[in-house]
Structures are given as C-alpha cells and as structure tokens.
Amino acid sequence: MMQRVWTIPTILSFSRILLVGPIVFCLLGKFQNNQWWAVFIIVVAIITDLLDGYLARQLHQVSDFGKIIDPLADKIAVGAVTFVLVWLGRLPLWFFLLALVRDVLIIGGGLYIQRTKNIVVQSNLPGKLAVNFVALLLLLTILEVEFLETARILALWLSVLMMLFSFGVYAQRLLIGRNIVNAGEHGTS
Fold it and tell me: In this structure, are residues 95 and 41 in contact, taking their beta carbons and an 8 Å threshold?
C-alpha cells in the first residue's frame, strides 16, 4: 500500500529543518533582541516536534517517511544550533562532537536495519528525552541569564547522560535487529 509522503505531520517535521536558517541568522545577527528571536523560533520548532508525532497518531498518518524525517529534522536543527553555539564559544566543542558521532552512528545503524530488514526504526523515548534535554540546554545557553547558569550546567550533563543512554538503547536495537537478520527470522524489532 502506498503511503502519502506529505501529510500535516511530515510538513511540520520538514518545517523544523526550514527553521534552522532563521535560527542561525538570529544567533549570528547583530540586531536588537536577536537572542530572543532565536529563542522564539526554537520554541516554535519545539512545538512542531510535539505536534508532528501527536497529529500523526491522531490522524492515522504514521508513515515510514515520517519516522525518518522527524528524527532527521531534530538532528539537523540540534546539530546546526549546537555548531553555531560552539562557534560563538558558548558551548564546548566536545559536546558537539559527542552529539555528532552519536547521531552519525544512530543514522548508520538505522540505515543498516532498513536495508537488511526493510524496517524503518522509529525514535524511542530515551532519544526523545535526549533531544528535549539538549533543546533545554540550547535555550539556556542562548539566553545567557546568570541566575540560570546552574540550570544550564545541569542541562548540559543531563543531555550528555541521556545521549549516552539513548545511544545504548539504539545500539541494543541494532544488535537485536542484526541477530534477527543473521538468523533469517522475519519479525519487527
């Protein structure tokens, strides 16, 4: 059965990728309230992330394309904003590299499962929690409010822990998927 690619949920996910340009422009811009505009656009992006999955389920529009574009949009948006904040000296380079390596390995593992089993691996709760902690970290970093510095540092370390934990969950899913492929079984992971 052919699935529609461009549904309301997938358009919302894709819009998150389109919001990256304005966010980066605001972060690098030298105009009044540029940081607040960046925060506003990021909040809009977060709302699209909350809505796309909810609407996909409510409208019965869950699709393989949606399972791909939603986490990909998250990875692109988070990666671009994190890179800019590293460039501006507001986040450590190691954090960006950790997120980048994790995401490349998750995407590679997902492609492996998709090609060998023809299954699109869906995001999991730890992965979504990791993205939410990273989003909180990015917002707190952009705001640069002194009395929130302790919260920002806590968000940094919670982001690291959740990224590592979610990576472990994805790695376990990959190993289970690989074992099923090697055993010749046909099931879902």
Answer: no
Tokens of 105: 């390995």
Per-residue pLDDT reduced to its tens digit, 74-127? 999 999 999 999 999 999 999 999 999 999 998 888 888 878 877 777 777 888
Question: What's the predicted TM-score (pTM) here?
Answer: 0.84
CATH fourth-level superfamily of 8-183: CDP-alcohol phosphotransferase transmembrane (TM) domain (1.20.120.1760)
In three-state form (DSSP H/G/I as H, E/B as E, the rest C), the secondary structure along 13-54 is: HHHHHHCHHHHHHHHHCCCCCHHHHHHHHHHHHHHHHHHHHH
Measure the CA angle with vertex 103, ends 2 and 92; round to 5°: 150
